[in-house]
Amino acid sequence: ITSGQSTFLLTGFPGLEASHRWVSIPINLLCVVSILGNNIILFLICTDPALREPMYIFLSMLAASDLGLCASTFPTMVHLFWLGARELRFDLCAAQVFFIHAFTYVESSVLLAMAFDHFIAIRDSLHYATILTRSATAKVGTAILVRAVLLHFPGPILLQQLLFPKISTLSHCYCLHCDLVGLACSDTQINSLVGLVYILFSLCLDSFLIMLSYALILRTVRGIASPGERLKALNTCVSHLCIVLIFYLPKLGLSVLHRVGKHSYPALAVLMANLHFLVPPFMNPIVYCIKSRQIRQSLLKRFQQKRIDAF
């Protein structure tokens, strides 16, 4: 039947349907902490004049994309785990496909922008402020958003042209482009090609350019004479490198699991599928609060101000 009349069934943890509420408590806690942590990061950067450097503007973009990703995935998780409702209409599913993929690739692009920000700061620190002005940073942010929208806008439109069974069962508790294409009953060559373009021009390209930027950073650091200055330069990249690994490693683990043991360990596959969207928004604020002295100082200043106001 046509896509508009199709219904999709969300999938929880196979074999643990009776315990969904208990199993979902850690996942819900991750979502709540992610939303709280990223809102705190956004609040600090927006209200503290000391955090107006390009690095922190990019960090605010990362926090905003994390919040968008939580808002895209959390509703269907609540819908399934707490309300026990599995059914999802096609239009809602297609909208979720767009927002999940768009926010994922916004995050990937922001990580790339942050990598080149670190490279410029290490290689040309004297001219850093003149190269990455607020205007340049705003243009980069606009380009990231436009690229994400243009790349993913055709996907849901092309999905509407496909034929689906009246009732289809999804692999996860949210909708993904590859999942819907796999469930279609009609020719999906164009949709598969679009999905390949998504991957090549976003995650693959971004990850390659991030690796290139770190290769350039290492080459620049090797040219620094003082060992102390080398260590200081590399230390500025630690937090960014951590969140890059947090972003890409769960995706790599899920990809390996899907090819090796998806059918042998279905509950683990679903858990990994949930965590690969939930872990980056959860960990990013924690990593930057631990590693960034300016973020910690701004946070402590806010707490101290609250204590003074209370007294």
TrEMBL record:
What membrane topology term does the record carry?
Multi-pass membrane protein
Q: Describe the location of the G-protein coupled receptors family 1 profile domain by residue ranges.
A: 37-288
Q: Which GO terms describe its cellular component?
A: plasma membrane
Q: Which GO terms describe its molecular function?
A: G protein-coupled receptor activity; olfactory receptor activity
Its GO biological process terms? cellular response to lipid
Q: Where in the cell is it found?
A: Membrane
Bilayer-crossing residues are 25-45, 57-82, 94-116, 136-155, 196-218, 230-249, 269-290
Highest taxon listed in the record's lineage: Eukaryota
Q: Which Pfam families would you find in this protein's record?
A: 7tm_4
- Kindly state which keywords UniProt assigns to this record, in alphabetical order: G-protein coupled receptor, Membrane, Olfaction, Receptor, Sensory transduction, Transducer, Transmembrane, Transmembrane helix
Major place of localization? membrane
InterPro entries the UniProt entry points to: GPCR_Rhodpsn (IPR000276), GPCR_Rhodpsn_7TM (IPR017452), Olfact_rcpt (IPR000725), OR51/52/56-like (IPR050402)
Concerning PANTHER family, the annotation shows: OLFACTORY RECEPTOR (PTHR26450:SF100), OLFACTORY RECEPTOR 56B1-RELATED (PTHR26450)
Q: What is this protein called?
A: Olfactory receptor 51G2-like
